[in-house]
From TrEMBL:
Keywords: Cell outer membrane, Membrane, Signal. It is found in: Cell outer membrane. Residues 242-480 form the RagB/SusD domain. Belongs to the SusD family. SUPFAM superfamilies: TPR-like (SSF48452). It holds the Pfam family SusD_RagB. Residues 1-24 form the signal peptide. GO terms for cellular component: cell outer membrane. It comes from the Bacteria. This is RagB/SusD family nutrient uptake outer membrane protein. InterPro entries: SusD_RagB_dom, TPR-like_helical_dom_sf.
């Protein structure tokens, strides 16, 4: 959790206008923060890039609770562990006082306010004579980061605040922006950013490897328009990405989510982390321990390799769905089995004879034994211990977190087309079959919305709440009532955090309606 957890006003303590930016290694290495002196010399134009570096560092500074809250409500995943807040949320029992809601809200808004400050400072460098083209590119990159955060905020809370400055006090004066207007704002911001961004894949950038490019902005624009039901704009944005010919599906689906998949040509947005290839010292890492196995039953191929908290569990519903499709390649990557989990599946007469590739030992020799908290774990959040840097033992250390993949662009393109859009770039059949081919599945013809949603279910299990957002967007919420859950109209969005309602009158008014 970030240090500014409880009251939004505490942001003032950490947002004293671009107080943290610095250089670092660019090649596959995250960007670190340092404090600038108050008497910044804006004539030193070479320092303007430090604001961009710090903005990326802020973007990658993920707190552990944020991703689970975004992702927990789909029928692909169950919470595990000891966080009752996540169990309640997964069952659509929401509470304004849940600490994870407030913390996630602050995690996102602190980033947005920080980026507003970075943009303000970049403008000062520009006014003092720094390169206008560099300034516009840096601002465009930051706009994409902001757009991505706002997309997640609105998906969670519906109508949200859009702060336009770095001063937290300005939030008191900002009106709530309706959901569709937020999405339109994001789309417009991406349109402003696109002309100023590099026209290459993120992994082709040589200044900030893996950084935001024009295609990242197009992807965020497509997702925002998808949420609005603006399918033609979605098809056009995804069509531009597809038509560029720059991206490709990684054929080794298993390794895509491992060290060999870092900065892959499938990835349009990727949170980057590194241990710098050293056995000790600085290591920037995503909180992978949330998804790791408990010590009991954990037998890593590399002795001393640590496990984790056991907070994340694929559902039996997802597993059976994949077995029914004979979707071996993706299931074997997405789900880590325990002996108890295998036994539970086999207890169903329809699955009594599981294929021999369903095992609790991974291809890299890590063994997942029985544990009190879970029957299964997420393979997309797993790094083989044989891929850890020698001398490093933290679960998943040095692994990146992929946020937007080309597979999603293809399937979102298909989703837009079966929902009424047109495209001369690729048909819905072609887009779906490209993804199915990678999974070693047969081709489909005349694909429907149900076919597309099924393919997205299979492809994005455990990833970013894609399944939940797909179902609620298309009103196909019956699938969210499973294993005792009962999804009701009105369960799509979370209530505003009580701590924020107490201090922001706009939220209080909206909560009382």
């Amino acid at each position: 959790m970030k240090r500014f957890r409880y009251k939004l006003i505490t942001l003032a303590m950490v947002l004293s206008l671009t107080a943290t930016f610095s250089c670092s290694e660019y090649l596959n290495a995250p960007l670190e923060n340092q404090i600038l002196a108050d008497d910044t010399d804006y004539s030193q134009s070479q320092n303007m890039v430090l604001l961009l570096n710090g903005s990326y560092a802020k973007f990658y500074d993920f707190e552990w609770e944020t991703y689970p809250l975004i992702s927990v409500r789909g029928d692909d995943v169950n919470p595990a562990g000891d966080q009752q807040v996540l169990f309640d949320t997964d069952e659509y029992n929401y509470g304004r006082s849940f600490w994870i809601y407030n913390s996630t809200w602050l995690n996102f808004y602190s980033d947005i306010m920080y980026w507003n400050g970075a943009i303000e400072e970049i403008r000062k460098y520009q006014e003092a004579g720094a390169s206008a083209s560099n300034a516009e590119q840096y601002i465009a990159e930051i706009k994409v980061m902001k757009g991505y955060n706002m997309l997640q905020l609105a998906r969670l809370w519906n109508d949200i605040l859009i702060p336009l400055s770095s001063d937290p006090n300005d939030l008191y004066e900002v009106e709530l922006t309706p959901f569709n207007d937020v999405m339109q704002y994001i789309s417009d911001q991406m349109d402003e950013a696109i002309p100023n961004l590099p026209n290459i894949r993120p992994n082709q950038r040589t200044d900030i490897t893996g950084g935001v490019t024009r295609y990242t902005a197009l992807a965020v624009k497509a997702l925002a328009n998808l949420e609005m039901g603006n399918y033609q704009a979605t098809a056009e944005a995804t069509g531009t990405i597809i038509g560029s010919g720059e991206f490709m599906l990684e054929q080794d689906y298993y390794q895509l989510f491992k060290i060999p998949g870092k900065l892959n040509s499938e990835n349009l947005l990727e949170f980057q982390y590194s241990d710098y290839g050293a056995e000790s010292g600085t290591s920037e890492k995503f909180p992978w321990q949330v998804y790791g196995p408990q010590a009991v039953g954990w037998q890593p191929a590399v002795p001393e390799s640590a496990g984790g908290w056991g907070f994340w569990e694929p559902t039996e519903k997802y597993i059976k769905f994949m077995l029914d499709r004979n979707d071996r390649k993706r299931l074997a990557t997405t789900v880590l089995f325990t002996p108890d989990g295998i036994s539970d599946i086999e207890a169903d007469p329809d699955y009594a004879d599981l294929p021999n590739w369903v095992t609790n030992v991974t291809p890299d020799g890590d063994t997942f034994g029985n544990a009190p908290r879970y029957k299964f774990l997420s393979g997309k959040h797993y790094l083989p211990t044989t891929q850890l840097t020698p001398g490093r033992f933290n679960y998943g250390e040095n692994k990146n977190m992929i946020a937007i993949r080309y597979a999603e662009i293809l399937l979102v393109h298909a989703e837009a087309l079966v929902s009424g859009a047109s495209s001369s770039v690729m048909s819905a059949d072609e887009a779906v079959n490209a993804v199915r081919s990678r999974a070693n599945l047969g081709t489909l013809s005349g694909v429907t919305l149900d076919d597309v949603l099924d393919e997205k279910f299979a492809e994005f299990g455990m990833e970013w709440g894609v399944r939940f957002f797909d179902l609620v967007r298309h009103g196909q919420t019956d699938d969210l009532s499973y294993e005792g859950r009962s999804y009701q109209e009105g369960d799509r969005f979370l209530p505003y955090p009580l701590d924020q309602v107490d201090i922001l009158p706009q939220l209080q008014e909206a909560s009382n309606q």
